[in-house]
Structure formats: structure tokens, C-alpha cells
Design a protein that fits this description.
Number of helices: 8
Helix content: 55-70%
Strand content: 5-15%
CATH superfamily of the largest domain: Histidine kinase-like ATPase, C-terminal domain
Radius of gyration: 38 Å
Shape: rod-shaped
Number of strands: 7
Order of helices and strands: HHHHHEHEEHEEHEE
CATH class of the largest domain: Alpha Beta
Strand order of the largest sheet: 2-4-5-7-6
């Protein structure tokens, strides 16, 4: 059984990448605010404020962009949900106060430098003792929205990460179960076939030798792709033909076999070693009937792949059929591979005998 690579959760985006995304959001918000204020000036008949508004919002955007990494760091370092909110609220309030002071100071300094450089004279930012609390009233709301959005973003990514890991674990568990079922089926099939050959050994050594050679070819075929859960139908049909040739060596003319497959379903995928247990069950179920007739058919039906294995035995006695390892294993593999999208049924044929039907979704094999 191949060793699976460990499941690696997706890494959380770094501060730099989140800061770049946040800067883009701040840029869009700053542009909208500039447009709002400029249109407000025009509505109030205050023309000629385009350059002033552009510089004000530009320096405000620049100051906010410089502080974004600090906000991202604080949001992740003191994240709500990991600690009681009443402990984190004062910490974030302190960060908001410090960052608001830094933001207002950066805007005041940058505007004091830029406005004279572009010929717009000195910039009047008003009395700073009032400007700081005024800007804080806006900044604390923006800070809270920012921290809340970053927390939600990180929680969403972690939830998606847990879902992905859980889905991968579930898929690996299902794959392991399928591999265990297949490993269980192969020796069951081998032991039963060897028992059949041993029953011929003392009657006809040449026939037993021919059966062993055919079994060797069959085993090489099934081991060619030991990890494949599904194979093209034409490969599965050839496998069951090889198995039936062994059985015909055992029963001779007392076993009559018919295998028919519609060409348009030859490349549809089916579970490996699906048909062999069904055929083996038919031969055992109809044992004693002379001649013993087994029919295998594969066709498309109502948008699904329909497989049927029929015999001319006594049919179902009542509503219960005894399921050995092969049939039980087959039912479990079908359930694991297809869930509710499959059907396995046992019915008496119209002319007697037992018909085992399998319906599975159509799935074409890739190159």
C-alpha cells in the first residue's frame, strides 16, 4: 500500500500580503471620500477645491497605508475569540489611541510640507489639541471595522482550512478502506480458485496443470495495476473471461458461458474484480444443474452502466440470499465508491435462475 504524503494545511497569508490588500481597500475608500467631498464643494458652490481635496485625501491615504502593517499585527496578536473580549478591548483601545495620534501627526507633517511645495501656501490644520481627539473619533471606528474584518477573514480561512483537511482525511480513509477490501478480495479469490484446481488434481493432472497456467496469467493481469480501484470495463470483462476459462477446465461441457458487452461501454470505469465474485457466486449457486449456464452482460441503461450476471440455478429461495466474503466485499466496495448512486440487486430470472444486477454511474476512463 503506497505511503500517502502528509496533509499540509494552507498557510495563513503574511502581514505583507494582507497589508497590500488592505492598502488597496484604503485607496478605494480614500478615492470615494475625495469624490464625495469634492462634489459636496461643488454642490455648495465652492469651486477650485479639486487640488486641495486631492492632496488632503492623498496624504491621509499615505499616512493610513504606513500604519496598516501595525494594525494587521495588532489584530492577529490580540485576536478576539482566543482571549476574553474584556481583556482585549483595553489593549485595542490603547493601540487605536497610539495609532490615531501617529496618523494625525503624519497627516499634519506631510500636509505642512507638501502644500507649500506645490504652491498652495501653508496648510491650516487648526489647533492640534482639538484635532487629535477629532480625528480619533473617526479613526477608532475605522480601526474597529478593520480589526473586525481581519478577524473574520482569518477565521474564514481557518474554517476553510479545517474543512479541506477534514475532506482530505475522509478521502484518505475511504481510499484505505477500499484498498483493504481489495486486499481482502484477492486472497479470497485465489484460495477458492486453488481449491477448485486441487479438486481436479487427482482426476486429471493435465487439466489441473492447464488451470494453474491460466491462473498464473490471471494473477499477472490483476497484479498489473494493484493500486487501481477502477479499471475500464473491457479489462474487467477480459479478467472474468480468463476466470471462466479456468472454470470451464473444471466443469468441461457442463459449463456454458456467454459474455456480451456493448461496444459503447467498453471504456467505462468499473471496480476492479467486480464481476469475478458475482460469476463465482452464480457457478456455486447453480452447482448441480446440467448444463450449468452463466451469462454476463454489460450495457448502457437509463444513463447508467448496467451489469448483469445470470445463471440457470434454482433462483432465490424466499427473499434471502446467503452472502459470503465475495458478495459482502463487493457490496461494501460499491457503497464506498458510489454511495447512493449505485444499486446491487438479486432477482429470480423470468425463466428461473438467479440474476445479479449492478447499476453504477457512467464514468469514462481517461487516457
Amino acid at each position: 500500500m503506497p505511503v500517502s504524503a502528509p496533509i499540509s494545511p494552507q498557510r495563513q497569508p503574511g502581514i505583507l500580503s494582507v497589508s497590500l490588500i488592505s492598502a488597496a481597500v484604503v485607496s478605494a475608500a480614500g478615492l470615494l471620500k475625495f469624490w464625495y467631498l469634492y462634489l459636496d464643494d461643488l454642490a455648495r458652490d465652492r469651486p477650485g477645491t479639486f487640488a486641495q481635496r486631492a492632496l488632503e485625501e492623498g496624504t491621509g491615504w499615505l499616512a493610513a497605508t504606513v500604519l496598516i502593517p501595525a494594525i494587521v499585527w495588532a489584530s492577529r496578536r490580540f485576536r478576539f475569540g482566543e482571549h476574553p473580549w474584556w481583556r482585549l478591548a483595553p489593549i485595542h483601545l490603547g493601540f487605536a489611541i497610539m495609532l490615531s495620534i501617529a496618523h494625525t501627526t503624519l497627516m499634519a507633517v506631510s500636509r505642512a510640507i507638501v502644500f507649500p511645495l506645490v504652491g498652495m501656501g501653508s496648510y491650516d490644520y487648526g489647533a492640534m489639541r482639538w484635532r487629535y481627539p477629532m480625528e480619533f473619533s473617526n479613526f477608532v471606528v475605522i480601526y474597529a471595522i478593520f480589526v473586525g474584518a481581519l478577524n473574520l477573514f482569518d477565521y474564514y480561512r481557518e474554517l476553510r482550512n479545517r474543512q479541506i483537511v477534514a475532506a482530505e482525511l475522509e478521502a484518505r480513509l475511504a481510499q484505505t478502506q477500499l484498498q483493504n477490501l481489495q486486499l481482502q478480495l484477492q486472497p479470497h479469490f485465489l484460495f477458492n480458485t486453488l481449491n477448485t484446481i486441487s479438486s481436479v488434481m487427482y482426476e486429471d493432472i493435465a487439466r489441473a496443470d492447464a488451470m494453474l497456467a491460466q491462473l498464473s496469467d490471471l494473477l499477472r493481469r490483476t497484479l498489473r495495476r494493484p493500486d487501481a480501484q477502477q479499471v475500464p470495463l473491457e479489462e474487467e470483462i477480459e479478467t472474468v473471461r480468463m476466470y471462466l476459462r479456468i472454470m470451464q477446465e473444471r466443469f468441461g461441457e457442463d459449463l456454458r458461458v456467454e459474455v456480451a458487452m456493448d461496444p459503447d461501454v467498453a471504456q467505462m470505469l468499473v471496480p476492479q474484480l467486480l464481476l469475478q465474485p458475482l460469476v463465482e457466486n452464480s457457478i456455486r449457486h447453480a452447482a448441480g444443474k446440467t448444463p450449468l449456464e452463466v451469462t454476463v452482460r454489460a450495457a448502457r441503461s437509463q444513463g447508467e452502466l448496467l451489469l448483469r450476471v445470470s445463471d440457470n440455478g434454482p433462483g432465490l429461495q424466499g427473499a434471502i440470499i446467503e452472502k459470503g466474503i465475495g458478495l459482502t466485499n463487493t457490496a461494501e466496495r460499491l457503497a464506498a465508491l458510489y454511495g447512493e448512486r449505485h444499486q446491487l440487486s438479486f432477482d429470480n430470472g423470468p425463466d428461473g435462475g438467479l440474476t445479479v444486477s449492478v447499476r453504477i454511474p457512467l464514468q469514462a476512463a481517461t487516457a
